[in-house]
Amino acid sequence: MIGALAFASCYVYSPTGKGSICARSRLLRALLKDGDARFMIQYAVRVREQARLPARLGGFFGAGDVLVPVPRSAPKTGGTWVAAELAQALVQQGLGGMMWPGLRRIYAVRKSATCAPGARPSVASHYDSFRMDSPAFYPASVVLIDDVVTRGRTLLAAASRVREAVPDAEIRAFALLRTLGRVTGVLHLLDPCRGEIRWARGDAMRDP
């Protein structure tokens, strides 16, 4: 298992918090899950704006990055693949060189959003359900793209699969929203951050 993964996110999501900002974060997540192309472009533009600010996400994305969307919880059989739509919108805004959907699920895992905290899929469960297609090229830099990050189990497992396929590549991860768990109040919906997801004590640990 990969030991540490640099990650960034742009917005916060409070599943249970009170107040207008928390309510807006839940609306943002709902709109994101709908996968509307206009919505994706709008928020990809916001990410690009933050990527131009050194104190925010400046330097996180590179022109030569290959953006790899994280698969849905079940093998793709139609419908919207939100991470792929987001990755494509980011590339259109100049945040990366190309989108490559080379990571896939070979069987379904339970959706974390519908699981009790203790029943959510482990890093190992995600890892075992992923397969990486053999790339026809070997990128120097890969950015995993997902819509929402909670603890980071999915991203850590995905990064481990990518590492096996392209062992010399730099691997980072970006999620548009990061979950704030039991935080009861949120001051800002747009709150870019950069941090790390680590493999520690047999689980993923996200900071911040």
Q: If you had to describe this structure to a student in words, what would you say it looks like?
A:
- By secondary structure, this protein is α/β, with parallel strands linked by helices.
- Helix content is 29%, strand content 27%.
- It has 5 helices and 9 strands.
- It has helices at residues 20-34, 37-51, 82-92, 123-129, 153-165; strands spanning 4-13, 66-69, 98-99, 103-105, 130-132, 141-149, 170-179, 190-200, 203-207.
- The strands form 2 sheets. A 7-stranded mixed beta sheet has the order 3-2-6-7-1-8-9, sandwiched between helices. Strands 4-5 form a two-stranded antiparallel sheet.
- β2, α3 and β3 form a beta-alpha-beta unit.
- α2 (37-51) crosses α3 (82-92) and α4 (123-129) packs across α5 (153-165).
- The radius of gyration is 16 Å and the shape is globular.
- The two termini are 21 Å apart.
- The model has no long low-confidence stretch (mean pLDDT 92).
Largest sheet: 7 strands, mixed
| SSE succession | EHHEHEEHEEHEEE
Q: Pairing-aware structural class of the strands and helices?
A: alpha/beta
- pLDDT under 50 segments (min length 5)? none
Number of separate helices: 5
Please count the beta strands (DSSP E, at least 2 residues each). 9
> Roughly how much helix do the residues carry, as a percent range?
25-40%
Mean pLDDT: 92
Task: Tell me the fraction of residues in β-strands, as a range.
Answer: 25-35%
Strand order of the largest sheet: 3-2-6-7-1-8-9
Envelope shape: globular
Question: What value does the Rg take, in angstroms?
Answer: 16 Å
Kindly report how far apart the N and C termini lie.
21 Å
